Amino acid sequence: MGKKINPLGFRLGANQNHRSVWFAQPKSYSRGLQEDEKIRDCINNYVQKNMKISSGFEGKGISHIEIQKKMDLIQVIIYMGSPNSLIEGRTRGIDELQTNVQKEFLSVNRRLNIAIIRVAKPYAQPTILAEHIALQLKNRVSFRKAMKSAIELTEQADTKGIQIQIAGRIDGKEIARVEWIREGRVPLQTIRAKIDHCSYTVRTIYGVLGIKIWIFVDEQ
């Protein structure tokens, strides 16, 4: 009854891959995990700051970040919806980002290499879609209108189904509640169904709202 599990972890090995690929001894595993967290936080903060300066948009536009660690190299791949907004007008955009992460990381023995890959269908990515909804909620757009506009965007990206859930003090009501909407099929218990998922936190003037999105991409 009601056993909740992250859809990405549930499908690892079937149709989902790890976002971090490296090997460590049990004693140094926690240090490696903290390194990954620092790298991701540093990249997210840098991209959010520069996107806000260049386009006035407060979101990051990052779908996800993959980290691959080797003996003498850390390869970071950033999947973005619109990488041009980060790079345009800043010839040294990626170099500057690399320097910032290297400073935070303070690793002498390993080189850091950052690559940016453009996502073909940005609105088929739950994280980018959650940022789109969060921006509208911050601007006091009705939550139903925000959810419906997000569904329209995913329909253009040829997805098979989407479910959106928003929880918290919606529209400033004193009692927190959960509202959700579903369009198409979202078979969460079918392992062969590839489902992308994200949970996103947005701070509004009424308090913190949580956004969860499940997108049914394809079935193998």
From TrEMBL:
Compartments where located: Plastid, Chloroplast
Keyword entries, A-Z: Chloroplast, Plastid, Ribonucleoprotein, Ribosomal protein
Predominant location: plastid
Ribosomal protein found in the keyword field: yes
UniProt cross-references to CDD domains, sorted A to Z: KH-II_30S_S3
One Pfam family, short name: Ribosomal_S3_C
Record-given protein name: Small ribosomal subunit protein uS3c
